Amino acid sequence: MSENLPNTNKNEEVDLGVLFNAIGKFFDKIFNFISNFFKVLFSVFIYTLKPLIANFKIILVIMILSGVIGYTMEKYKTQTYKSVMYVKPYFDSKYQLVNNINYFNALISNKDYETLIEVFDITDEESKIIDRFEIEIGPESENDKIKDYDTYLKSLDSIRAQSISYDDFIENRDIFSSDFFEITVYANKKDVFKNLENGLNSSFENTYSEKKKQKRDSLLYIKKQNILASIRSVDSLQKVYIKVLEQDSKTSSSTISLSEGFSIEPENSRTKEYELLNKELELRKELSALEEKKIEENDFFDIVSGFQDIGSISKTIFQKYSIILPLLAFAIICLIFMMKKSVAFVKRYD
């Protein structure tokens, strides 16, 4: 028994030694891999940098020439201007608006200037300087997005609404999800934008929107007539209770007879008159809300902000040739040097 115990201890010591050796070799491999990776990375960096330093003067001259050429192109290139208009469509006229914007761009691409002249009522010269139209969702705050999300959830059943998160809603929105739009026009002349507003205004009108507006007006008319009828009924009842109060002032009876078989207590008449007054106020408030809705949404669209008289210069980073061309030249030079080195390496490889 005592002889087996030392053997067991020796076996355990051997197992631990093997385990520690394996762990040590594993970490050595990791460190060697990281070290070799950075060595290769450094070699590639030096390999790329060496020809650039050796040909520094040539590269500098090429980049300066590219910058001069880019600046010259910027100076003599036809300037592009832009102007923005914000609109709020009603009666689902936004679908026609987006479709017409695409139609206008197709006319420009096809150089169909005659149709552009007819649509926008502009001159031949003005039709040829329009570059393109763009439309996107107008500026909106986080609160606006949350309100849209709440409205969307209310349109769904409770089970379906639980599966739609706010992030999913925002991610899956498209241009038709909004009721507020930003229209941008690009042109080669800075004072043409105001002349395009009338043509864009006609983009909202279509048969579907007209029918929807007529249906809305008919429903509002019916609701208005119902409210007016209710107000007339309330007025009639008010006159009855006023008559009761007048008779109450002339008699000390606890009940007042209005006609054969019908009587009312004065205290009840005062309570009912107050209730009828509140009801009349509610009905008139509803009537006022209907009138306001009809006034606020009586057109197919509202122009929140029209085109500026003078457009602003439109210039993106890709139009700054004095920067783009030198960077492009440098990238091409690097690519040429790498290709030369690669070809030389392949030829030497055995």
UniProtKB/TrEMBL annotation:
Keywords: Membrane, Transmembrane, Transmembrane helix. The chain crosses the membrane at residues 30-49, 56-73, 321-339. It comes from the Bacteria. This is Uncharacterized protein. It comes from Psychroserpens burtonensis.
